[in-house]
Amino acid sequence: MAEKSAVDRSTFDKVILPVYSPAKFIPVKGKGSRVWDQQGKEYVDFAGGIAVTALGHCHPALVKALHEQGETLWHVSNVFTNEPALRLAQKLIDATFADRVFFANSGAEANEAAFKLARYYASHRHSPYKSKIIAFHNGFHGRTLFTVSVGGQPKYSDGFGPKPADIVHVPFNDLDAVKAVIDDHTCAIVVEPVQGEGGVTPATQAFLQGLRELCDKHQALLVLDEVQSGMGRSGKLFSYMHYGVTPDILTTAKALGGGFPVSAMLATEDVASVMEPGKHGTTYGGNPLACAVAEAALDIINTPEVLAGIDERREKFISALEGINQKYHIFKEFRGQGLLIGAELSDGFKNRAGEFHAAAAEFGLMMLIAGPNVMRFAPSLVIDFADIEEGMGRFEKAVDKVVGG
């Protein structure tokens, strides 16, 4: 076996396409909510791989599922079906509104499938001119040309040539703005129940309820992007369950595989029934490895014990953040759902989220930002209370350094 060549952070700058600006350290090992870098320095993980490692690093049940499937069957393509995919699909259907599932590899791919399905359904059932998609400013749905165009952040979509047409963006949580643009040419409204990248902002009850009613009135589909808010992150299996609003299509990824790349698009029988073999597909989607791990993750996350513990952990985070805020007065608002928490910086610290983020790493804390003004926390859903306490202690040291500096 070939020897592993020595690599460090400087290697990144030579060999990787310059679309990322990663931290100066390289994580090499993780266990639970602790991570160690090349030098052996330990970090508490409040980032969760951007809401992905929902059961922490190397959870024994996921390791076992991966190992067992890895010795059995890796890949057969969708020329054949496989048992892990069928089991996972049935469990997702049993736990949600959905009747049909399509598996892919990433949130962007699940959203791409959802937007294509919404357009195809409208064309098939109503009219080829019923193609308008209504989406929201600061929304984020992925990086393919279609999904990045539906996303409401032009900085991610500008410069790549002509964008897919017939996509309209309006302000989030503004029902009147939606009413002003929706018409009988609208095929879908696409929305995150909690805007993640856009600042960890939840939809209001009236807004999401109103979107459902507008979709029904105009024979449009309600598409919920739960790539970040789903799989227990909100305190329920999916965020829509807090609102009593049922979508026509839902997408999930990130935490679905607990760290293994997998995603799913869920749909009702009525919507799914317009599709036929060859209309959409993916080589790797629904492969046995990914689905075996995702099934193990779902079996753990979708339990009363884990879901009930999420709000309890949220309270610990909010309480610690409030304590820090009483001392340093750096936050104006805490928001989000469950263990997707956004702490918005006060006006005196505007545009300085990056500084707090960098300082946190210095003190052994991995966390996230959501734009230049929001600190984002998306830890493991089963993070130990001791790890929350330790991590928030490290965050306070980082805050003290930035404020004092």
UniProtKB/TrEMBL annotation:
<dbReference type="InterPro" id="IPR017652">
    <property type="entry name" value="Ac/SucOrn_transaminase_bac"/>
</dbReference>
<dbReference type="InterPro" id="IPR015422">
    <property type="entry name" value="PyrdxlP-dep_Trfase_small"/>
</dbReference>
<keyword id="KW-0457">Lysine biosynthesis</keyword>
<comment type="pathway">
    <text>Amino-acid biosynthesis; L-arginine biosynthesis; N(2)-acetyl-L-ornithine from L-glutamate: step 4/4.</text>
</comment>
<comment type="function">
    <text>Involved in both the arginine and lysine biosynthetic pathways.</text>
</comment>
<dbReference type="InterPro" id="IPR015421">
    <property type="entry name" value="PyrdxlP-dep_Trfase_major"/>
</dbReference>
<comment type="subunit">
    <text>Homodimer.</text>
</comment>
<feature type="modified residue" description="N6-(pyridoxal phosphate)lysine">
    <location>
        <position position="254"/>
    </location>
</feature>
<dbReference type="InterPro" id="IPR015424">
    <property type="entry name" value="PyrdxlP-dep_Trfase"/>
</dbReference>
<dbReference type="InterPro" id="IPR004636">
    <property type="entry name" value="AcOrn/SuccOrn_fam"/>
</dbReference>
<comment type="similarity">
    <text>Belongs to the class-III pyridoxal-phosphate-dependent aminotransferase family. ArgD subfamily.</text>
</comment>
<feature type="binding site">
    <location>
        <position position="140"/>
    </location>
    <ligand>
        <name>pyridoxal 5'-phosphate</name>
    </ligand>
</feature>
<feature type="binding site">
    <location>
        <begin position="107"/>
        <end position="108"/>
    </location>
    <ligand>
        <name>pyridoxal 5'-phosphate</name>
    </ligand>
</feature>
<feature type="binding site">
    <location>
        <position position="143"/>
    </location>
    <ligand>
        <name>N(2)-acetyl-L-ornithine</name>
    </ligand>
</feature>
<protein>
    <recommendedName>
        <fullName>Acetylornithine/succinyldiaminopimelate aminotransferase</fullName>
        <ecNumber>2.6.1.11</ecNumber>
        <ecNumber>2.6.1.17</ecNumber>
    </recommendedName>
</protein>
<feature type="binding site">
    <location>
        <begin position="225"/>
        <end position="228"/>
    </location>
    <ligand>
        <name>pyridoxal 5'-phosphate</name>
    </ligand>
</feature>
<keyword id="KW-0663">Pyridoxal phosphate</keyword>
<dbReference type="Pfam" id="PF00202">
    <property type="entry name" value="Aminotran_3"/>
</dbReference>
<keyword id="KW-0032">Aminotransferase</keyword>
<keyword id="KW-0028">Amino-acid biosynthesis</keyword>
<dbReference type="InterPro" id="IPR005814">
    <property type="entry name" value="Aminotrans_3"/>
</dbReference>
<keyword id="KW-0055">Arginine biosynthesis</keyword>
<feature type="binding site">
    <location>
        <position position="283"/>
    </location>
    <ligand>
        <name>pyridoxal 5'-phosphate</name>
    </ligand>
</feature>
<feature type="binding site">
    <location>
        <position position="282"/>
    </location>
    <ligand>
        <name>N(2)-acetyl-L-ornithine</name>
    </ligand>
</feature>
<dbReference type="InterPro" id="IPR049704">
    <property type="entry name" value="Aminotrans_3_PPA_site"/>
</dbReference>
<dbReference type="InterPro" id="IPR050103">
    <property type="entry name" value="Class-III_PLP-dep_AT"/>
</dbReference>
<keyword id="KW-0808">Transferase</keyword>
<keyword id="KW-0963">Cytoplasm</keyword>
<comment type="pathway">
    <text>Amino-acid biosynthesis; L-lysine biosynthesis via DAP pathway; LL-2,6-diaminopimelate from (S)-tetrahydrodipicolinate (succinylase route): step 2/3.</text>
</comment>
